[in-house]
Amino acid sequence: MVESRLIGPVRVVGTGLLGTSIGLGLRARGIEVILADASPTNLSIAIDYGAGRAALTGDRPQLIVVCVPPDVTAEIVARELESFPDAIVTDVASVKLAPLAELRARGADISRYIGSHPLAGRERGGPLAGRADLFLGRPWVVAAHDGISYQQATAIDDLILDLGATLVEMSPEDHDRSVALVSHVPQVVSTLMARRLTDAPAASLNLAGQGLRDVTRVAASDPELWVQILGANAAPVREILVAYRDDLDRFIAALDDPAAPGARRRVAEELAGGNAGVSRLPGKHGHDRRFVSLTVMVDDTPGQIARLLNEIGALGVNVEDLRLEHSPGAELGLAEISVLPEAVTRLTEELAARGWRIAG
């Protein structure tokens, strides 16, 4: 068992995806975890899965992690601060400024509270979706404020490091502006695009490829949760959406008459601007190095993906990324393999020589 930085016990309030995953990750390190949830069913499932035990009278947790919806986060944090006067309390809500402001308005003891936010999740929620490795390599923001000392906050740092996440320090304001750009606005854009599919002809949907699936993937998220998140972070989300609307208006104006002088140049500039934006996203392991992709046609039968990956490994080529797409109406899959640029020519030739069909 890997040695833990935390002493424990750790109390986790809320046994959804994040709470259960935190419990499972800490239990894997031998930390005592106390679970609490307003839902007896969720609590029972999380306990049965080994994420921790039920609360007992006399529990004295070192750290409390509140994993509840944003609209009740401040209320539950205030209750935990009052009920456990010796514990440090954090929450994992995806907005940080609103809970802190509400706690201050309530007169809560924020000298023992600091908000945090793991940027990790899945499309599915609930305790059944919990995973001990959910946070490995993922950013976990600690939203510092001037009401808590560094010494008080070390338990939260230890929690993040124990779970294998990457600690990132930001102010609550900077955090909320950042997640508006990289999470909350993409959710809105994905949702609005997916709404266009509601009344689309089936013949059109049958043509859908991976691009549409990528754009609309997060549109399957829980509407109730997102109403809370967007309401709590409305100002920065609105600011970005207004600028996005201006971008759309420019694009639409250029398409009104594509043959007009300057119209094609305007479209090209907008597309090039998208290229520039994508190029700034960190690559694998946070590095900026770019990869090259080739697409291999794979029969949709058991063991074919494993055989492809084994042969790539035998050639001494590392797969930097992998995406799978099914070919509509055919028992065929398309495996998009990303590798280092210097490896793509040799890999293409070697795979073709072994009978693999290269689509691109």
Automatic annotation (TrEMBL):
Signal peptide stretch: none
Catalytic activity: prephenate + NAD(+) = 3-(4-hydroxyphenyl)pyruvate + CO2 + NADH
EC numbers, comma separated: 1.3.1.12
Molecular functions per Gene Ontology: NAD+ binding; prephenate dehydrogenase (NAD+) activity; prephenate dehydrogenase (NADP+) activity
Origin: domain of life: Bacteria
Domain Prephenate/arogenate dehydrogenase, first and last residues per copy: 8-289
Keyword Oxidoreductase listed: yes
Keywords on record: Amino-acid biosynthesis, Aromatic amino acid biosynthesis, NAD, Oxidoreductase, Tyrosine biosynthesis
Enzyme class: oxidoreductase
Pfam families named in the record: PDH_C, PDH_N
Protein family per UniProt: Belongs to the prephenate/arogenate dehydrogenase family.
NCBIfam families: PRK06545.2-3 (NF005111), PRK06545.2-4 (NF005112)
UniProt xrefs under PANTHER family: PREPHENATE DEHYDROGENASE, PREPHENATE DEHYDROGENASE [NADP(+)]
This protein's name: Prephenate dehydrogenase
Native organism: Cryobacterium zhongshanensis
